[in-house]
């Protein structure tokens, strides 16, 4: 029997999705954070650190953190914004045809307005069916003044061995390299991870492919202009207390993002961006 129900995950309240064909996903209320995706008849596709921290104020290492309204430390707000460490409200959980769908919402409050004086709602909608996962982030300006923001779906993809994986599709893209402090252009079509990587690719193509031995994952973007590719490498992983030292080999972040150019919303307007996966 197919079902979508409230449950617990690592002691945290969560929404569990299960499609008629067995595809599954789990979303924490904390941060509106997708922590698991298992396609029908398949294995876990997202990386989640076994030493991740949970609970009030924590940012969970792995899955799909929601970044809004600031990316990383590119501004005066807390790192990666205001919503990934706060509790969201489930507003929908249904099975519709072949799809299991859940929507969670976060609305500004006194705590967010202390940092950022704007009225907004953020909605995250997750849909699973068969071999597909869709994640949509929708931001609405509910206040009385325009605002600018950045956003990202900080997706951690599970890898057997990231040093043997290949990310295809970024050839010709201009990028910022945060580790080297330089900008450049991607020459080849294959992006390989041989150590730490932290790049923002601008005006990225709408489709990328992550390949490993026996695995092909199609990544599609809609209304996200940038792609962030990140892996801490062995040295960076050793400095992260919520990531086992060797687990950098088992993950690659391929993030749908709007980083270079902010999005502007006038009162009453909304923006939505989507990242989709097919394995």
Keywords:
single chain, 279 residues, mainly beta, Beta-galactosidase, Chain A, domain 5, 9-stranded antiparallel sheet, 2 helices, 4% helix, 48% strand
Task: Report on this structure.
4% of the residues lie in helices and 48% in strands. The strands form three sheets. The chain has a nine-stranded antiparallel sheet, with no helix packed on it. Strands 5, 10, 11, 13, 14, 16, 19 and 20 form an eight-stranded antiparallel sheet that branches. The mean pLDDT is 95. It has helices at residues 110-115, 233-237, and strands at 4-9, 12-18, 24-28, 33-38, 66-67, 89-96, 99-107, 120-129, 132-141, 147-153, 156-158, 166-168, 174-177, 182-185, 190-191, 197-201, 207-212, 215-222, 226-231, 251-265, 270-278. The chain has a single domain, classed as Beta-galactosidase, Chain A, domain 5 (Distorted Sandwich), CATH 2.70.98.10. The chain is mainly beta and 279 residues long.
Low-confidence stretches: none
User: CATH topology, which one?
Assistant: Beta-galactosidase, Chain A, domain 5
Helix content: under 10%
- Tally of contiguous helical segments: 2
| Mean pLDDT across every amino acid position | 95
Give the CATH architecture: Distorted Sandwich
CATH class: Mainly Beta
The N- to C-terminal Cα distance equals 24 Å
Order of helices and strands: EEEEEEEHEEEEEEEEEEEEHEE
Using only CA atoms, what is the Rg? 18 Å
Counting copies of identical and different chains, the oligomeric state is single chain
Strand content: over 45%
What is the β-strand count? 21
Integer count of domains: 1
- Silhouette: globular
**How would you characterize the largest beta sheet?**
9 strands, antiparallel
**Order of strands across the biggest sheet?**
6-7-8-9-21-18-17-12-15
Structural class, from helix and strand content? mainly beta
